[in-house]
Amino acid sequence: xxKLKVSFKINGEExxxxxxxxxxxxEMIREDLKLSGTKExxxxxxxxxCTVLLDGVPVNSCLVLAPEIDGKxxxxxxxxxxxxxxxxxxxxxxxxxxxxxGFCTPGMVISSYALLKRNENPSEDDIxxxxxxxxxxxxxYTKIIEAVxxxxxxLKGGK
Length: 159
Ligand code: FES
Ligand code: FES
What we know:
Blueprint: E1 4-10, E2 13-19, H1 25-32, E3 51-54, E4 57-60, E5 73-75, H2 88-95, H3 105-118, H4 124-130, H5 142-156
Parallel strand pairs: 1-5
Antiparallel strand pairs: 1-2, 3-4, 3-5
């Protein structure tokens, strides 16, 4: 199968890859770029484990074809930490014990990041809505919601 050239930015780095037309963004991230923080759960757009930001918008990377990201910017969970320091949302998840098995966590953190970028003071309903596409099969969402609230207050306080 003929490969297509895809030029994009990932976690701030300009990148060029040649990919099969049917390669998914998720496969490209995990297998070609070896960024294993993004998880594959269902592979069909149901679980949100594979969520990344595409031009700032959270998307299920299992549903995006790699050639579609030509000229665009992708941010994965690896792109949130800066200078070896966790992003406040990541710290808040740790602080609130919101990581259970942790499989859904990267997607949850990316969706929370997008929420707090557009709304620095979300209500509990806003948080629930923003995370509605991210499924956690562990013990529930209470700690995850608390973590997003804590991250919101830290970010407002300039942490
Ligand atoms: S792996 Fe993409 S939504 Fe589940
Ligand atoms: S922490 Fe296990 S699926 Fe969410």
